[in-house]
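Deadline looming. Please check this record:
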Amino acid sequence: MKDDYVSGYVALIGRPNTGKSTLLNRLVGQKVSITSRRPQTTRHRIIGIKTDAQAQVMYVDTPGLHKTEGGMMSRYLNRAASGSLEGVDCVLLLISSNGWKDEDEQALAHAQRQTVPVILVINKIDKLKDPARLLPLIEQSRAKMNFADIIPVSAQTGAGVTDLETTIRRYLPV
């Protein structure tokens, strides 16, 4: 084993339908988490493991975070997502490339309470009709929190995912 081999836990958080499960499947290279357009498809944390010559990363897919005034199911899913953040080495906060929504603020509040690096992942860049809209979104995001990094990706097509993996490894323990 090399001295620079890293290993750690990475949690994926965000509002429902930001592509957390699709990204998990892309990162581990196989379908380990159900994907659906229907909100609340992921109801328990799902762990996917990727091992290669440089790293072993345990990705934790969490239920989408909802506004707290939701019903019993929303409160349960928020607790499940919050509990999944304990003991992780890095957090990926996912938002959609169509910009910050009110429900993203709930996930942002969870991210701001973390003591580990938080990487903002702007997903669904393949859906942008005008790629020039990405730069203002990145600037707006920087004003919300001092993210360790901001990485635009498309979990669906794989664009930017290699850059994301490289970035994640920089924040994992040796």
Notes: The chain has one domain: 6-170.
